[in-house]
Write a structure and sequence with these properties.
- By secondary structure, the protein is an alpha/beta fold.
- The chain folds into two domains: 9-85, no CATH class; 91-366, Alpha-Beta Barrel (TIM Barrel).
- Helices cover 36% and strands 19% of the residues.
- The strands form three sheets. It has an eight-stranded parallel sheet.
- The longest helix has 18 residues, at 246-263.
- It is globular and about 60 Å long.
Length: 371
Amino acid sequence: MTEIPSSASLYFRPTGFVEAPFGLDGQVMRLAGGLLWFSAFDVIVVDGGERLAPRLVPIDALDDFVGSLTDAQAERARIVMARIGEPRAPFQLGDRVLRFDEPRIAGILNVTPDSFSDGGRHSDNPEGAADAGFAMSARGAAMIDVGGESTRPGAADVWEGDEMERVIPVIERLAASGVAVSVDTRKAAVMEAALSAGAAVVNDVSALRFDDRSLALVAKAGCPVVIMHHAGKGHELHADPVYRDPLVEVYDWLENRIAELVEGGVARDKIVVDPGVGFGKALQHNLALINGLSLFHGLGCPIMLGASRKRLIGALSNEAPAEERLGGSLALVTLGAAQGVQLLRVHDVAESVQALHVWRGLRDAALIPPG
């Protein structure tokens, strides 16, 4: 195997997943304190913007591998591998606790006239929207994500006053009944009003870059925040996709943004990362991200995957429209769970919860010691 250049950057993607750790002491690692164990790292080596020959390093060979690196590379490797193994701290969301030791469902509740999949279903009807949120919670959603502005390609910006008028009555109803609520918004004024109304999490597709006031507001509130990757500036969610290595570039972007949030006063254990499937990415970029999801555990934060009913499913299934993408959505839910994703953001809650129940049943069966 060729020597790794001292100038190279290394990325560690857990792979070689095993059914159970029994009898494999020293040969497997537990992934983020969850239900998965893996036996090797796919070490991605990047030098000068180019990937070098791939390296598959078994867990029981890690010490020798790290010992072959420069001091700086070795220190970085130890930090990232520790993050990969550490359990993720639970979130206290009002009266509920959101734990990350197994995959959970976040139900999408759009209070918009123009969202790509369910736009118009609940607009101008806060009681009906809240009832839909209650139904998703009853069917097993751990959190309801309420949004009042479409982020589909070509959607017009919504004035913050109109956005608040859409979401606040719904959030108030849900939170008053003990439902864990996140608010899907890019605007600080909407975040502030939603948190006051009982929302417990901010989910910002702009990663707190759209509104200059957002970072300070979230830091002061001390609430969890979901930050999503997108290639453009704060206003450009769907910039033309240009990537040499989408998996590595999205990882670097999120790592840099986490550092900026921490510097701005947001606790690292309150940050969730979302690779931004479908936002400024072509089909091949989305597929690379989904295939490589386990890499993002190296950031040390829970991962959210939002791929429900998205365009990539239609592209792979004879251009099926959004309402006919349930099968593909469920495939991505189970694939995300199999790579340790902690939050699956979905439209079809009951079906997704059922898929996770089956997945969890298989995991439980595998984790019963033999004999």
